[in-house]
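Continuing the series of single-chain predictions for the mutant panel. This is the parent chain; the variants come on the following pages.
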Amino acid sequence: MTPRQRLLAYGGAAALVVAAVVIGVTLSGVFAKAVALALGGLGLVLAVSLVFLEVGLSEDHERAREEESRRAREERERVRRAEAQEGQVRLARRRPWQRRRDTEH
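Parent structure:
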């Protein structure tokens, strides 16, 4: 959700609640009170729904970060194993009677 979308969504919910308060205070009658109650309820439900959406999106982002971290760990482990296996192959190719140049005997 972009900051502009977030502003519009929460602003719309707040506008509904403000409109409900204004209608409830300024107009009299059963119909005006019913409209005020409906608008206020709709605004509050929208606000709570947006909060739940934000929580869900943050969990999705966190899950994606964890997945990327897991993939990177697995790739590092795969490379480490491949390098270790390559080292074992090099050791196996050496003849036991051959000396290494870096060791002194």
